[in-house]
Amino acid sequence: MTDIEQRRILHTEIPGPLSRERHARRQREVPSGFGVTLPIFVERAGGGIVVDVDGNHLVDLGCGIAVTSVGASDPGVVERVREQAGRFTHTCFMVTEYDGFVEVAAALNRLTPGDHEKRTALFTTGAEAVENAVKISRAYTGRPAVVVFDHAYHGRTSLTMAMTAKQMPYKHSFGPFSPEIYRVPTADPFRGAPAEEAYARFADVLRTQIGVDRVAAVVAEPIAGEGGFVVPAEGFLPRVAEFCRANGIVFVADEVQTGLARTGRMFAVEHEGIVPDLVCTAKALGGGLPLSAVTGRAEIMDSVHVGGLGGTYAGNPIACAAALGALESIERQDLAGRAAEIGARVLPRLRELAGSVPAVGDVRGRGAMLALEFVEPGGKTPSPTTAAAVAKYCHERGVLVLTCGTYSNVVRLLPPLVIDFELLDDAVDVLAEAVRKVAG
Ligand SMILES: *Cc1c(COP(=O)(O)O)cnc(C)c1O
Questions:
Q1: What is the pLDDT of residues 368-390, one digit of tens each?
Q2: Domain holding 47: CATH number?
């Protein structure tokens, strides 16, 4: 799958001298608004390993934020990209057509839940997919309002920033925000209301505050990603979807982070048997190249006037070629099954940590989308400093983990689904050591 040795190897401290030199230059050339989780410069990456310019092999438990599920140099992706780039790089699908676009659309129409007739529109980024799902829902229903949830992350554009919950860093100083966005609580098993109560609140807000007949779409992540890997209490989302169906509201699943095998199913809504009207995908879709999609019921998707959807780069041919390679790898290697195996292997070890270290308030997730939430021992007060210290400990030992969460107190694991199990175990050993040393 890759010729990079699948082993953690540290030649220098992390970040090493060559990375530090490059990072200093970057600070002179790139605005400081771009944060960085770990300032190492990457030379190569593949399987479960990232090789930096100092020659260190780090274990990748982040996948560039859930993107490189098939690895960062999957041969199926790389070969198709090479082949396509050699033929043509761009036409703009709104100007002249090409097969790759239609093939990706057909694959997503086949793979997404439900056997109804579907259409897929391709775009470039996750935020763009979510924006277009809103535009399509408004066109179809003739209604203005959009309902989103606590902990939601939907992107950084003007509209999706309004839909995103967290103020710092995503919204701070960037308003005013797009109107007609309404936020309701989710069923957060650790901090919030149980399913029944959260659902009652949801239905009440739509009925009494917004007006059900003004709601175009309810947009939900099946697992809140940036918001802290919050898995809604069982039964909540199916009832929300049912409410939408009964009231002519488009139910949109934002599967940008959860979709395409990450959670142990092709789509995370499948865990609860939900069939969304529209599904947004991105991240893992392009196998590392920028590609996103809205897939949904033909009558909804076709309700938009001709010329109303598009984008210069929407469904770029090289990105489509990459996606066809990524989708083939996901299906052929049964990476959904692999994600479930990763969960079955890692989750018990995280639970064991939660049982023995009081600063681990919660352990949760599905498949290869797992998280530890850190608190002040003895309660639920978030401890972002502990999460940051655990991540730092891992980074210094060559394990690339990411943090997230509304309270920035969650360490999340998003390993490539192709990761070697020995390598994964080694990385989890480092994480366990980090938790015991830093938080124990
Ligand atoms: C990352 C993400 C987005 C935004 O995707 P971009 O490609 O960064 O615009 C939207 N929704 C969810 C759930 C995400 O995780």
A1: 999 999 999 999 999 999 999 99
A2: 3.90.1150.10
Residue 6 lies in a domain: no
Angle between helices 335-356 and 421-434 (to 10 degrees): 20
Number of domains composing the chain: 2
| Domain assignment present for 174 | yes
Give me the mean pLDDT over the 213-240 stretch. 98
Give the residue ranges of DSSP H helices in 231-277: 236-246
Give the distance, in angstroms, between the CA of residue 213 and the centroid of all CA atoms in the same chain.
31
Distance CA 175, CA 305 (A): 30
| Total Cβ atoms within 10 A of residue 28 | 6
Which residue among 131, 161, 231, 256 is best mutated to probe the pocket of ligand 1, counting the most ligand atoms within 8 A of its Cβ? 256
Domain hosting 398: range is 17-60+335-439
Q: What is the pLDDT of residues 91-142, one digit of tens each?
A: 999 999 999 999 999 999 999 999 999 999 999 999 999 999 999 999 999 9
- Whether the CA torsion 424, 427, 431, 433 is positive or negative: it is positive
Domain membership flag for residue 194: yes
Distance 376 CA to ligand 1 centre (A): 30
Residue nearest to atom 8 of ligand 1 (CA): 126
Q: How many CB atoms lie within 10 A of CB 117?
A: 11
* Domain identity same for 225 and 106: yes
Distance 349 CA to ligand 1 centre (A): 29
Q: Residue 265: is its pLDDT beyond 80?
A: yes
Residue 209 lies in a domain: yes
